[in-house]
Amino acid sequence: MSISKFADTVGKLQELRPWDVPLNPDVQHHIITLYDNIHGEGGEAFCEREARYIHRTIVDDKNKWNVTPLSVFLAFVDLAVKDLTLEPGAQALCYLMNRGTKLTAADGQDYWENRCYIAITGYGEILLRQRCGQIRHCDTPTVVYEGDSFAYTESDGRKHVTYGLNLSHNAANPIACFMKITRLDGSVDYAIILPEAWKRLEEYSKKQNPKKDANALYKANDGAIDSGFLIAKCVKHAFKNYPKLPIGKGMVMKADLPQEEAAPDYYSLGGTPEAQSEQKERESFAPEPDTSAGVTVDPALNGNDDETF
After folding, report:
1. Each residue's pLDDT tens digit in the chain (309 positions)?
2. Where are the alpha helices (H) located in the chain, listed in sequence order?
3. CA 123, CA 308: separation in Å to the nearest integer?
4. What are the b/e assignments for 39-77, b being 16+ CB within 10 Å?
5. Do 307 and 123 meet the contact criterion of CB atoms below 8 Å apart?
6. Spatial separation of the C-alpha atoms in residues 247 and 278, rounded to whole Å
7. CA 78, CA 247: separation in Å to the nearest integer?
8. Which pLDDT belongs to residue 176?
């Protein structure tokens, strides 16, 4: 079915149950055609794999995932456009989330609609930035503890980190986390998160929790922040000063970018409402594994199979 024809059947799409959308033959044909048009080939394998992930997530808790079927379709489209996978894991590229979206009715009254989105993790953002030519490689983040030597300087626009491991350092007291980023031209940048930054995030976490309790991982290390959680925070906020990545109507960035840049209209759905959310997304705090080879991603090896980095 062509894209224009699919636009004529939005009414039928809206009649589907959310968990039926990824398995619908017309939806799958549209996704396969779109994927092949953008990426050349592999649409059928992509569609079969990601439809299974989406369907399983929604079916596992139908009450929680009482989202609009149109939002499920838009999320599926964005997944195909960006060639990402929902394969779960500690270094997952993205995951499904649902959140309330504030809309305005024709009579001017505001109302909330529960929608499905693709949330791009820090690791997914690294991959997308590699694909668009902003960076070449990211080293595995390093946690600095009390007793280690650590200095950060900047001169003539160049950042430099000096770090020395002290084997007898105080592992119960992290004092920083940094990640080395190699740009495409070979120049080096550093992402650094310091105690004042994660304490601010802890206070924000308290405000977002109805019980006014911060995420337990902020105190999981004998009262200090969990090291795996700190690494995840470093990755998440590594690219705040980089150009924004264009994302679609069915996606959100896990990093707190100020706004979402418009993407080309791959949906061909005409007057589909734009997402206007005022509710902050929930965070996923999966512990990060201890890797030693960095997080270099070969785009040719991602998105066409079940491998993640």
Report:
1. 445 555 556 778 888 999 999 999 999 999 999 999 999 999 999 999 999 999 999 999 888 888 999 999 999 999 999 999 999 987 899 999 988 888 888 888 888 889 999 999 888 988 999 998 889 999 989 999 999 999 999 888 788 999 999 999 999 999 999 999 999 888 899 999 999 999 998 888 888 777 778 888 898 888 899 998 898 889 888 888 888 888 878 888 776 433 333 333 444 444 433 333 333 333 333 334 443 444 444 434 343 333 222
2. 3-7, 10-14, 25-39, 43-60, 69-82, 122-131, 195-208, 227-236
3. 9
4. eeeebeebbeebbebbbebbeeeeeebebbbbbbbbbbb
5. no
6. 18
7. 8
8. 95
Buried b (16+ CB within 10 A) or exposed e, 234-264: bbbbbbeebeebebbbbbbbbbebeebeebe
Tell if the pTM clears 0.90, that is, is over it. no
The span from the CA of 223 to the CA of 35, in Å, is 47
C-alpha dist (Å) from residue 288 to 90, 166, 294: 5, 22, 12
DSSP-derived secondary structure for 82-106: HT-----STT-SEEEEEEEEEEE-T
Structure tokens at 129: 């930035």
Distance CA 100, CA 94 (A): 19
Backbone phi and psi for residue 172, each to the nearest 5 degrees, phi listed first: -90, 0
Give the sheet arrangement for strand 251-253, strand by strand: 94-104, 110-120, 251-253
Q: Among 34, 26, 23, which Cα is nearest to 5's?
A: 26
Q: Between the CA of residue 72 and those of 18, 57, 118, what are the distances in Å?
A: 7, 11, 9
Tokens coding 67: 């989202």
Q: What is the DSSP letter of 178?
A: E
Structure tokens at 23: 């398995």
Question: What's at 131, amino acid-wise?
Answer: R
